[in-house]
Amino acid sequence: MYLSPTTREKAVAIAQELLKTNNISPREAVSKAILIAKNWAVKNVNRRVWKKLKSIEEII
C-alpha cells in the first residue's frame, strides 16, 4: 500500500504512541496507525480543497 511521505511519517509517529500507551501487538499498532493517518490525510486534503473553492468563490 502506498502512503505519501507525510502520511507515512504521521503513521509511524502514531504507531510509536500506540505501542507506548496501549498493550497491543506491533502489527495491530501499525495497521491502526495507518488507518488513522489515512483519515488525517483525507481530512487535510478536503480542507485544502474547501479553502481553494472558497477563495475562488470570493473572487467571482
Automatic annotation (TrEMBL):
Name of the protein described by the UniProt record: Uncharacterized protein
Species annotation: Dyadobacter luteus
